[in-house]
C-alpha cells in the first residue's frame, strides 16, 4: 500500500536528457500504466522508481518519504522484468523464497508464503523445477510469484507480457487485473501496448520523449485526448486526422472546410476558434458511417474483415487515408466510391500546435 | 570421397598431429626409465631395460615432496589470492562500467607484455627489505600479481555473459552487493571461474622466472627443482627426465581431469 510522488524528476545519460522533469502522483491501490512508444523513457522512469537507475535531479517520494538515495535493495518494492530474470540455478520454490531468506524469515513461514503464492498462481506442481524446465507462461507466473510472496508496498511491472504469445497475453492480462483487485496493492505497469493500457489501467500516464503528455482514466484519454499525440496513440485502430480551415463561426457551431472544399459542421464554443484558422480534425474509425448522404467523398482502397466487424481503408477526396470501422455485414469492395458521414458529436479538434480545442 | 573415408583420414591426421605435439613429453617419460648410457645412445631403443633407478636417485639427491608441496601451496595460494582480488574488480568492470573501463582492462593486459626481467631489480630489492626472499608468501604475492591481469580479463568476459537483469532482480529482492555476488553471480559463472582457476593454477605451476630468482631452498617450487638438475656436474638426461616427469605429473593429472573446463576457458570469446 503506497503512494508514489514524482517531483520534477530528471534523468540525464551522457549529457542527453532522457526524462525531462516529470511531475506525477501514483495513488494508493491504483494500477497505473505508463504507456508510450519505444524510447519514450517509460522503462527508465520505472527503473528510477525501483532504484536501479540513479536520479539526476528532482524528488522521488514513496509514502511521503524521500527515497532518492535509498538503494534498490532497501526500498521494499518488487519488480517483474520483461525477461522474467529468474535465478536459473534455483528451483521455483527457491526463486520465490529468495527475498524472504535474505530478510531472515523463518523456514516455516517462508514455506507457507511460497505455498500461498503458488496456490494463487497455480504453481504448486512446479515448485521443484528449475526455470529452464518451464514454459514462457510458467516462467512469467514464477516471476509474479516472486513479487507477491514479499507483500511489497509497491509492485512494478516492466512490459511483463511482451514475450508471451497473443492468446496467453490476453489471459495473463486478465489474471493480473484480477490479482490487482485481490491484493489491493499499488501497481505501476509499463507497456508500449495501448490495448494493455486501456484494459488494465485505473489510470494511464502517456509518455513521449521523456515528457508526460496526459494522465487520466482510460475513458478520459479515449474521449478527451489532450493533444494529437495522445489522440493518435490511444485507441485501435488509430484516430483519423483531416486538415481543415475554419470558414464560419456561429454560436456553438463552426463550419470547417477540408482541403477538397467539403464543409463539415462541428459543435464548439465560438470563442475557441476564429475564421481562417487551420486546424486538425480528428475522427475515430468507429464514429464514421458509410452513408449515401455522407458529406465526405472517398474511394475504398482495402477492406480488412475480422468477422464481427471490418476495417475499411479509404482515400478521401481531400487525399487523406482514413479508416472506417463498419459492421461485418456491410459489403464494400476495393475501388468502390463511397460517401462518409462523420458523427458530429464525436469530433476532436486540435489547433496548429496539436493541442485540443474545447 | 565417401564420408567414412573422410572421417578415417581426419582421425589418422588428428592422431599424427597429437603424437607430434606430445612426442617430447612421451620421449621424456620413456627416457626417465632408461639408464644414462641408453638415454644418450645414438641408436635409441624404445623400451630397453626400463627401471625406476633414476627416480630413486632423484629422490635421494633432492627431496621431491618438499618442492612439490611448495608448488602446490604457491600455485593454489596465488590463484586464490588472484581470484579474491579479481572477482570484485571484474564485477565492477562488467556491471558498473565507466568510459575508462575498456582502457583500464587493456592497460592491465599490457603489463603482461613487459618482460618480467624489467622489474627484477626493484622487486628483488623490495623483497629483500621486506624479508620476503625465499618465502612462500612472497612467491604467492608475486605470482598472484603476475596472473591477475589474465584472471581479471577472463572473469570479466564470463561475468558479461550473466544477464544483468538477474542481478537486478536480486537487488530488488533485497540483496546487497556481497549477497548479489555470493548468491547469484558466483553460482551463475561457476564454469567460467573453474576454468579460469585451472588456467591460473597451470600458469603459476609452470612459472619459473620468479621462482628461480626469488627463492633458493625453503620456498623453492618444482621449477627450481628441475633447474637444479641441469647444472654443475653436466647433464644427466635420464635423471633430468625423471625429475621433469615428476614435476609435470601433478599438473598433467589436474589438466586431464579438468580438460573440458580448460578448453572452454581457453576458447572463451571465440565461440559464443
Brief characterization of the structure:
The complex is a heterodimer of chains A (358) and B (272). Chain A is built from 8 helices and 20 strands.
The largest sheet of chain A is: 6 strands, mixed
- Overall geometry of chain A comes to elongated
**Major protein interface:** A-B, 23 and 17 residues
N- to C-terminal distance of chain A: 37 Å
Percentage of residues in helical conformation of chain B:
over 70%
Spans of chain B of at least 5 consecutive residues whose pLDDT stays below 50 are: none
CATH homologous superfamily caption of chain B: MetI-like
Number of domains of chain B: 1
**How much strand of chain A?**
35-45%
Please tell me what the overall shape of chain B is.
Answer: globular
Query: Structural class, judged by helices and strands of chain A?
Result: alpha+beta
Tally of contiguous helical segments of chain A? 8
Classify the secondary structure makeup of chain B into a structural class: mainly alpha
**SSE order of chain A, as H and E?**
EEEHEEEHHHEHEHEEHHEEEEEEEEEE
- Which oligomeric form is depicted? heterodimer
**Strand order across the biggest sheet of chain A?**
6-7-8-3-9-10
Give the helices and strands, then pairings:
The complex is a heterodimer of chains A (358) and B (272).
Chain A: E1 4-13, E2 16-26, E3 31-35, H1 42-50, E4 57-62, E5 65-66, E6 77-80, H2 92-102, H3 107-120, H4 136-148, E7 154-158, H5 166-183, E8 186-191, H6 194-200, E9 203-208, E10 211-216, H7 218-223, H8 228-233, E11 240-250, E12 253-258, E13 263-267, E14 278-283, E15 288-290, E16 296-305, E17 309-316, E18 321-327, E19 337-342, E20 348-350
Parallel strand pairs in A: 3-8, 3-9, 6-7, 7-8
Antiparallel strand pairs in A: 1-2, 1-4, 4-5, 9-10, 11-12, 11-14, 12-13, 14-20, 15-19, 16-17, 16-19, 17-18
Chain B: H1 3-31, H2 36-39, H3 53-61, H4 64-95, H5 101-110, H6 120-130, H7 136-160, H8 164-172, H9 177-188, H10 190-206, H11 209-214, H12 222-227, H13 237-257, H14 259-266
Amino acid at each position: 500500500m503506497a503512494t508514489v510522488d514524482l517531483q520534477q524528476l530528471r534523468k540525464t545519460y551522457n549529457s542527453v536528457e532522457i526524462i525531462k522533469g516529470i511531475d506525477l502522483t501514483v495513488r494508493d491501490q491504483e494500477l497505473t500504466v505508463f504507456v508510450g512508444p519505444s524510447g519514450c523513457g517509460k522503462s527508465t522512469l520505472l527503473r528510477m522508481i525501483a532504484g536501479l537507475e540513479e536520479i539526476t535531479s528532482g524528488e522521488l517520494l514513496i509514502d511521503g518519504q524521500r527515497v532518492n538515495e535509498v538503494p534498490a535493495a532497501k526500498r521494499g518494492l518488487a519488480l517483474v522484468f520483461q525477461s522474467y530474470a529468474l535465478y536459473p540455478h534455483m528451483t521455483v520454490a527457491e526463486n520465490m523464497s529468495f527475498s524472504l531468506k535474505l530478510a531472515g524469515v523463518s523456514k516455516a513461514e517462508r514455506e507457507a508464503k511460497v505455498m500461498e503464492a503458488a496456490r494463487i498462481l497455480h504453481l504448486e506442481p512446479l515448485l521443484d523445477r528449475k526455470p529452464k524446465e518451464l514454459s514462457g507462461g510458467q516462467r512469467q507466473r514464477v516471476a509474479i510469484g516472486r513479487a507477491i510472496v514479499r507483500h511489497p508496498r509497491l509492485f512494478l511491472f516492466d512490459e511483463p507480457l511482451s514475450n508471451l504469445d497473443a492468446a496467453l497475453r490476453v489471459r495473463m492480462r486478465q489474471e493480473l487485473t484480477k490479482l490487482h483487485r485481490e491484493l489491493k496493492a499499488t501497481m505501476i505497469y509499463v507497456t508500449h501496448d495501448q490495448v494493455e493500457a486501456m484494459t488494465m489501467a485505473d489510470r494511464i500516464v502517456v509518455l513521449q520523449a521523456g515528457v508526460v503528455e496526459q494522465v487520466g482514466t482510460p475513458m478520459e484519454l479515449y474521449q478527451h485526448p489532450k493533444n494529437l499525440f495522445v489522440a493518435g496513440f490511444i485507441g485501435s485502430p488509430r484516430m483519423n486526422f483531416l486538415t481543415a480551415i475554419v470558414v464560419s463561426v456561429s454560436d456553438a457551431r463552426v463550419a470547417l472546410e477540408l482541403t477538397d472544399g467539403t464543409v463539415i459542421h462541428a459543435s464548439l464554443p465560438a470563442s475557441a476558434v476564429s475564421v481562417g484558422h487551420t486546424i486538425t480534425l480528428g475522427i475515430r474509425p468507429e464514429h464514421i458511417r458509410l452513408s449515401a448522404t455522407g458529406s465526405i467523398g472517398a474511394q475504398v482502397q482495402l477492406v480488412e474483415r475480422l468477422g464481427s466487424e471490418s476495417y475499411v481503408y479509404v482515400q478521401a477526396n481531400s487525399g487523406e487515408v482514413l479508416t472506417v470501422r463498419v459492421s461485418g455485414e456491410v459489403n464494400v469492395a476495393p475501388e468502390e466510391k463511397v460517401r462518409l458521414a462523420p458523427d458530429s458529436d464525436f469530433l476532436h479538434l486540435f489547433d496548429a500546435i496539436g493541442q485540443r480545442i474545447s | 570421397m565417401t564420408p567414412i573415408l573422410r572421417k578415417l583420414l581426419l582421425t589418422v591426421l588428428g592422431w599424427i598431429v597429437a603424437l607430434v605435439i606430445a612426442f617430447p613429453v612421451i620421449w621424456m617419460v620413456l627416457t626417465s626409465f632408461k639408464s644414462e648410457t641408453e638415454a644418450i645412445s645414438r641408436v635409441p631403443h624404445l623400451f630397453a631395460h626400463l627401471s625406476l633407478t633414476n627416480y630413486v636417485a632423484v629422490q635421494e639427491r633432492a627431496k621431491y615432496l618438499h618442492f612439490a608441496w611448495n608448488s602446490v601451496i604457491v600455485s593454489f595460494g596465488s590463484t586464490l589470492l588472484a581470484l579474491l582480488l579479481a572477482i570484485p574488480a571484474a564485477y565492477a568492470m562488467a556491471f558498473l562500467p565507466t568510459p575508462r573501463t575498456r582502457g583500464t582492462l587493456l592497460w592491465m593486459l599490457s603489463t603482461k607484455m613487459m618482460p618480467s626481467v624489467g622489474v627484477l631489480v626493484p622487486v628483488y630489492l623490495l623483497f629483500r627489505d621486506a624479508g620476503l626472499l625465499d618465502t612462500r608468501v612472497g612467491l604467492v604475492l608475486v605470482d598472484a600479481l603476475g596472473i591477475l591481469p589474465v584472471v581479471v580479463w577472463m572473469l570479466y568476459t564470463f561475468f558479461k555473459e550473466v544477464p544483468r537483469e538477474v542481478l537486478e532482480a536480486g537487488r530488488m529482492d533485497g540483496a546487497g552487493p556481497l549477497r548479489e555476488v555470493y548468491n547469484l553471480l558466483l553460482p551463475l559463472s561457476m564454469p567460467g571461474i573453474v576454468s579460469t582457476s585451472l588456467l591460473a593454477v597451470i600458469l603459476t605451476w609452470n612459472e619459473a622466472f620468479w621462482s628461480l630468482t626469488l627463492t633458493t631452498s625453503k620456498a623453492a617450487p618444482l621449477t627450481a627443482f628441475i633447474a637444479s638438475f641441469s647444472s654443475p656436474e653436466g647433464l644427466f638426461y635420464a635423471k633430468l627426465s625423471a625429475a621433469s616427469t615428476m614435476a609435470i605429473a601433478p599438473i598433467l593429472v589436474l589438466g586431464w581431469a579438468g580438460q573440458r573446463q580448460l578448453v572452454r576457458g581457453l576458447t572463451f570469446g571465440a565461440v559464443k
